[in-house]
Amino acid sequence: MLFLVDYENVGNMGMKGCHYLDKSDYLIVFYSEAKKNMERRFLDSITDSGCTGLLG
Questions:
Q1: pTM of this prediction?
Q2: How far apart are CA 46 and CA 19, in angstroms?
Q3: DSSP code per residue over 6-46
Q4: CA 50, CA 56: separation in Å to the nearest integer?
Q5: Three-class SS state of 51
Q6: Fewer CB within 10 Å, N or C, the chain?
Q7: 49 membership: H or E segment, kind and range
Q8: Looking at the predicted structure, is the pLDDT value of residue 8 above 70?
Q9: What is the pLDDT of residue 35?
Q10: End-to-end CA distance of the chain
């Protein structure tokens, strides 16, 4: 499944549920200089899931 997250508008609350991602998922997170710091636990969940992702 494809997930698009506008991190600048939703922040860490928009990352809830990322621990459900798996290898068949694709995640794109949009962010800017104004909102570029995500909690480490979400980054770890995304990495551990094995999903394909793009931060930009």
A1: 0.81
A2: 7
A3: EHHHHGGGGGTTGGG--TT-EEEEE-BTTB----HHHHHHH
A4: 18
A5: coil
A6: C
A7: helix 40-49
A8: yes
A9: 85
A10: 19
